[in-house]
Amino acid sequence: MTASSRLGGIGDEAAVRVEDQVKVHRELGWRWLELRTVDGVAVGDLDLARVERIAELISAAGLSVPCVDSRIGNWSRPIDTPLALELVELDAVAARAHLLGSRYVRIMSFPNASMSDSEWAAAVLDRMRALVRRAEDLDVVLLHENCSGWAASSPERALRLLAEADSSHLRLLFDVGNPVAHGYNGSSYLARTIDWVHHVHLKDALPPSGDGEPVFTMPGEGAAGVADRVAQLLRAGYDGVFCIEPHLAVLPHLRGGSVDPGLMRESYLEYGRRLQALLSSPGAA
After folding, report:
1. Residue 280 in contact with residue 4, Cβ under 8 Å?
2. Count of structural domains within the chain
3. For residue 153, which of 106, 204, 95, 111 has the smallest C-alpha distance?
4. Has residue 107 been placed in a domain?
């Protein structure tokens, strides 16, 4: 099975309303819709009855939810965030993931907050063990993304995270564009961790200039080597889903004004079509 037949995306980069997220994915001919927010509300904060209706809508459209994105350990939750808050988030997201038919919950590993490296490592590993034990009880699998936090950019740290947790309820999510955005080699990181990757995000980017932000691009126009990383994953036997996260109209970590719905929809559709063309070109995955 080719990568092109396993494409999906993070819906809130296509549209705010879940009904519109579904429409865009159906227009692309994709069957995977990853959920992060609906109507601007994080999945973990959605009313359970609302999630049941969302699940029915997605299923009726012939789509499935491969992963639910939590805020655990992300750019807004540094290491001094109370662990109790993260456990409450996990309980909430796990309940909603089950209603949506998914066992995968995206997490990160807590940006530092004035700790020494050794203190930061110890704190991250302690709370990750607690989160994984809770995930075992809740029957969900935590997927650590190579984005914000202690284990984000180092394959050695990611592997240590897995070893310390020592559980099938912690695996990895590899985002193809994050190495460019955060300044490390994506091919090398993936080569070391590929056996534990259970989900993939696709974005492309050009490196930050000075102290600025990276410039996110259409697939194949940046420095992430999107087609090469997809081929690397397939050669290693990866059989999961590839979800786009364009970061063109929407940048979740940068708070700002509202985004034009038409721009969201059209940029997402163009991104998806360009990705399909890239992955379908001769010699591609």
Report:
1. yes
2. 1
3. 111
4. yes
